[in-house]
Amino acid sequence: MKIIISNLAEGEHLYEFSEDAVTFELGDYVIKDKVAVSVRLNKSNSQVYADVNFRCRFEFPCDRCLENFEKDISGSFIVVFKYSRDPDELKSGDDENIFFIPPEKNFIDLSGMVRENILVSIPMRKAPDEKDGRCAYCGKTEEEILRNTETKEINPVWDKLLNKKNLK
Questions:
Q1: Which of 115, 128, 141, 165 is the least crowded, having the fewest Cβ atoms under 10 Å away?
Q2: Closest of 117, 118, 110 to residue 40, by C-alpha
Q3: Which phi and psi angles does 151 have, rounded to 5°?
Q4: Do the Cβ atoms of 65 and 135 come closer than 8 Å?
């Protein structure tokens, strides 16, 4: 997702990208569609200001019932590229949203920043929404999922141990 800024006129510019998941190297995550990215870029003589929005649809295994479900992930961030000739500023990376670039730089690449923000937007608990205590995807309550309804045949080797446990 490179944007050429060398011949770009000052002012506001809009860009729309539709990228494959391979572009962002998201590992084991399954993205159902392409990642849609919109960029509102404002260029001045001293900096390039980018307001970036993204959205995509992931397929996750549910943390409760292990069935796959789809979830939309979206987010936005702002990044500023300031022009500088100072070698110390060009090497500095103190602020994650402000980068110093030389004035002769031809392009900016946003793919790494979009990747980081997608990864941060993925929820830790991957489960569909609940409505009235029931999963919106499979319709089960948490108790139904946790209740062991199957009768499993127990290996006779464990009988002695199970009988000791029941005696206490």
A1: 165
A2: 110
A3: -100, 120
A4: yes
